[in-house]
Amino acid sequence: MLWTPAEARGPRPLVLVGHGAAQTKSEAYVVALARTLVRHHSMAAVAIDGPVHGDRRPAGHVDGSLVMLEFGQRWADDPALTDDMIQDWRAVLRAVQSLDEVGAGPVGYWGLSMGTILGIPLVVAEPAISVAVLGLWGLTGPTSARLAGDAAAVACPVLFLVQWDDALCPRQRSFELFDALGTRDKRLHANPGAHSAVPPEEFLATAQFLADHLVPAEHQTTAGAASA
Amino acid sequence: MLWTPAEARGPRPLVLVGHGAAQTKSEAYVVALARTLVRHHSMAAVAIDGPVHGDRRPAGHVDGSLVMLEFGQRWADDPALTDDMIQDWRAVLRAVQSLDEVGAGPVGYWGLSMGTILGIPLVVAEPAISVAVLGLWGLTGPTSARLAGDAAAVACPVLFLVQWDDALCPRQRSFELFDALGTRDKRLHANPGAHSAVPPEEFLATAQFLADHLVPAEHQTTAGAASA
Questions:
Q1: How close is the nearest chain A Cα to the Cα of B84, in Å?
Q2: Is A190 among the domain residues?
Q3: Number of compact structural domains in chain A
Q4: What are the phi and psi torsion angles at B52 (to 5°)?
Q5: Which residue among A188, A199, A223 sits closest to B225, beta carbon to beta carbon?
Q6: Residue A226 falls inside a structural domain
Q7: CA dihedral over B26, B30, B32, B34, signed as positive or negative
Q8: Which of A20, A60, B5, B221 is most exposed, with the fewest beta carbons within 10 Å of its own?
Q9: What is the CATH number of the domain that holds B26?
Q10: Tell me: the pLDDT tens digits for B171-210?
Q11: Closest-CA distance of chain B to residue A191, Å
Q12: ipTM of the complex
């Protein structure tokens, strides 16, 4: 899924959006975020399905619990899962940046939960990515050792989200992952509520954060004025 | 110290600014914050010296370490310290709101570190305060039991700041105080660095947060557009 402004001619900033487990590239919040990036900040956005998710599955196999179970098994058993996803993202990045309406502008990454599990290794592997929104995950699960190592290699600015009452990933584990991020240019935003209860204004803040880093100051629309 | 826009006629929003220990009402960051509130958001701001601080001291007795020591002793020995400061703040609020250039508009509180130690009880005691910026402190020190009780009674929206590498107040203690805040309308922003290393953009975010809650939407200047 690719979103660009109606009048688009590249090069313009591009954000790669990684969805969470048991979701898809056309999840409502992914679409809403992409539209904010396009309409408020004149950036492009692209989303692809994660491993065993969305259009990668046989038609009709979309039960969320089943997808979660299969992802959990593959995640535990297959070290190539993350590497395959990185290759997919990098191929998508090359393909999308070859389009006239996107072009070779600066690149950001946005991904929470599974989007962070798979996104931190991507941010480290893909040098074009110069800013990232991460969070809703921590140093836990089958790839936590790899995740800690990759986190230490993250060198770009990061906004990291935590849900204070997250039952899927206890906040202490998330704090450990934030702590492990190698970049000094990082900040953590925590909100009350469950894993999936990130408030709307925090989504807007993530879009503003990406725009502050990807959109040249002279091209910032009114939405960017608060960062001045 | 009172700051108002040049063209000021009330009523307009007012922010009470509480400084940190060993500082004064005319500390550089207090002045910078007040100017941001006035110039970017057309609010008024007022700051007074804390107990044993600034103009409350004999002339010339301004050594920071000595002030810190005296505050620590008074804080431990004198339960009236907090109550006296609350009475001072409430008298200042009445006096300032009686001025034509301020008037009886909505009221916010901004105070970090000692400004939170003394500010949480004030926010609970003064019903006019409808939003607060707090942080750089936690459930520790001689008044931690009172602070926990008062925190539970805080009912207004709160932005709470944490410095990730704070040696004066370890982050776990700050997390406990954030957790204890009774309001559900709260969010925590953490940045790397020491107690005093709150980054400039976080100061701007606190001003924007206060404006979002105190300034009617139709009066928001361009700086408020990002919150739309």
A1: 33
A2: yes
A3: 1
A4: 60, 20
A5: A223
A6: no
A7: negative
A8: A60
A9: 3.40.50.1820
A10: 999 999 999 999 999 999 999 999 999 999 999 999 999 9
A11: 5
A12: 0.85
Chain B residue numbers with beta carbons less than 8 Å from the beta carbon of A222 are 222, 225
Instruction: Show the domain range for A11.
Output: 2-218
What is d(CA A65, CA B48) in angstroms, rounded to the nearest whole number?
Answer: 57
Q: Please give the pLDDT value at position A221.
A: 58
Given CA atoms B190, B191, B192, B193 in this order, what sign does their dihedral have? negative
> Which pair of tokens denotes residue B167?
């040696």
Task: Find out whether the peptide bond into A216 is cis, omega within 30 degrees of 0.
Answer: no
Q: How confident is the model at residue B219, as a pLDDT?
A: 74
For residues A156 and A32, give the distance between their C-alpha atoms in angstroms, rounded to a whole number: 25
| Predicted local confidence at residue B228, as pLDDT | 30
Size of interface A-B (CB pairs under 8 A): 66
C-alpha radius of gyration, chain A, whole number: 17
Q: Is A227 within the bounds of a domain?
A: no
Is residue A69 assigned to a domain?
yes
CA gap A189, A209 in Å, rounded:
12
- pLDDT class of A224 with cuts at 50, 70, 90: very low
Q: Which residues of A touch B (CB under 8 A)?
A: 162, 164, 171, 175, 178-179, 184, 186-192, 199, 201-202, 204, 208, 222-228
